[in-house]
């Protein structure tokens, strides 16, 4: 047996699911299902989503976070996801990487937000080695002082998920659907969206990023490719699905709330 | 009560005197279990008084979670099941589920947490209580840790990472 095979045997197993253009709602439903009903570790990479979509964190209130009228007029879907964190607008240019881990398979990481965040920062530090200015800053991935990756987590009894949306590229017009949130990182310094974020494509090739991410994960886990069609055999049983698309009625209520407070 | 007031005192003074409070001594304070409470290894506490048990998360837990910005609580008159989730808190960028240490009927939830989720950080054993339960199986309380055992558990858990 070769030395590399011996090394692999000591690493915990992680299933790798590679998607392309999967709708973000479907991706989030998959993640929530795997977090709650599977006992395996998972890495999900989605190379873009199909249509521009707004995704809010668990506690997000539409009237506070989005410009409801244009969102409704332009029929932009709005999702509330099962993880914490802020609001993003994603599209075909966005890259998604999600890591679902059993806490016992990452024993040097305590199942708390800051510990998981630090671990992720170290992993992506490998991905962006040689790229100037990369760091985990407060809870964002940045080049210098400009954010290109937003993170969110959900921690349950013995497992956690850390998922990231990477701004490969973005349409400035889409940023106009988002309000300036009330809770912002200190380093943002009152900058609006276009001054605060940057495009990952200015720093690394798309395929290079995906392959380096898979490699970095493979340094800590033995990766096994799993096709989407085979997921049912890994995720059995019912669970409370909390990720959902907001209804028109909810958006209308949010708009009414905004109008009242204006 | 001592740990809560000490934790609050540390929070007030930390910006001034952080330099002479080592991370170890701060975490020891948050790790100390209060007398009169029982503890789960998922860092919830239970105060059993008569036919009612009050449940919240410990100072150790709130310290590790960070600033709590949102609390999701169950409806009153629903049931809690030992070691199953009854709600969640949001802190930093994470939702973290909260597990019930005991089973029973949820007779009251702390509605103040909706407007003031930070009570969990500032007063985890008093104003930051989360639910009150009528225990269905009082024997479940016996399997929980006492304050000394919980203190040791926290120290060992932190030392292992």
Automatic annotation (TrEMBL), chain A:
Pfam families: LplA-B_cat (PF21948). It comes from the Eukaryota. InterPro entries: aa-tRNA-synth_II/BPL/LPL (IPR045864), BPL_LPL_catalytic (IPR004143), Lipoate-ligase_2_inactive (IPR053264). Residues 39-225 form the BPL/LPL catalytic domain. PROSITE patterns: BPL_LPL_CATALYTIC. PANTHER family: BIOTIN/LIPOATE A/B PROTEIN LIGASE FAMILY (PTHR43506), BPL_LPL CATALYTIC DOMAIN-CONTAINING PROTEIN (PTHR43506:SF1). This is Predicted protein.
Automatic annotation (TrEMBL), chain B:
It comes from the Eukaryota. GO terms for cellular component: glycine cleavage complex; mitochondrion. Residues 52-134 form the Lipoyl-binding domain. InterPro entries: Biotin_lipoyl, GCV_H, GCV_H/Fam206, GCV_H_sub, Single_hybrid_motif. Its cofactor is (R)-lipoate. Keywords: Lipoyl, Mitochondrion, Transit peptide. The keyword Transit peptide applies. The keyword Disulfide bond does not apply. One of its GO terms (biological process) is protein lipoylation. Binds 1 lipoyl cofactor covalently. It is found in: Mitochondrion. The modification N6-lipoyllysine is found at residue 93. Transmembrane segments: none annotated. NCBIfam families: gcvH, PRK01202.1. The glycine decarboxylase (GDC) or glycine cleavage system catalyzes the degradation of glycine. The H protein shuttles the methylamine group of glycine from the P protein to the T protein. Belongs to the GcvH family. The glycine cleavage system is composed of four proteins: P, T, L and H. This is Glycine cleavage system H protein. It comes from Arabidopsis lyrata subsp. lyrata.
